[in-house]
């Protein structure tokens, strides 16, 4: 199956990033700041909405804690940074915010209800509508992110292409494994991580979100075990 929705989503992010790079030097600083803060607030709201879908709060807490510990043991934060630095070196970028832009944008676009549910919906039912809607939102968000972080945001399109593409193909081959409750718990856990991203964007506190990514796999295992 061709992941059409994911291809459209990645293209929208790439296009939005290019627009943001073109407008970067032309945006007044105060407009750039308030736009970026607006994105941060919206990310917080989306994260809260997703987190409220949880069916079992204790299970989500355990998944996030265990995921964070596992991520630190695997040094995922450093792994992401090395990957971003490698990409930065390949394109010879001198932007000091390249790594932050790549990681932040990748997490914003990949960890979310629409990314997960949309990919599953495309893989299980062949319905692209959720990912098409996500493409519009991500396109506008990438414009704002690129005006702040620069070219690193553009490469997040590759993360989206790989991540959502794999999810779609996985859902196609494993349709019977995911019940509505499992998807709800997965969405809620993603919402907790999205909240952390919003906090990072608003510079309230720097949270090592990359290290918590294993919680998404752990919550699926815990949810399947509790059935």
What percentage of amino acids are in beta strands?
under 5%
What would you report as the Rg, rounded to the nearest angstrom?
Answer: 17 Å
**How many helical elements?**
10
Stretches where pLDDT is under 50 for at least 5 consecutive residues are none
Walk me through this protein's architecture:
There is one protein chain. 77% of the residues lie in helices and 0% in strands. The radius of gyration is 17 Å and the shape is globular. With 227 residues, the protein is mainly alpha-helical. The protein has ten helices and no strands. The longest helix is centred in the N-terminal third of the chain and has 23 residues, at 29-51. The protein has helices at 4-23, 29-51, 57-73, 76-90, 98-110, 113-125, 129-149, 156-173, 180-201, 214-226.
Provide a brief overview of the structure.
With 227 residues, this protein is mainly alpha-helical. The protein has helices at residues 4-23, 29-51, 57-73, 76-90, 98-110, 113-125, 129-149, 156-173, 180-201, 214-226.
Element layout with pairings:
Elements: H1 4-23, H2 29-51, H3 57-73, H4 76-90, H5 98-110, H6 113-125, H7 129-149, H8 156-173, H9 180-201, H10 214-226
Helix pairs in contact: 1-7, 1-8, 2-7, 2-9, 3-9, 3-10, 4-5, 5-7, 5-8, 6-7, 6-8, 9-10
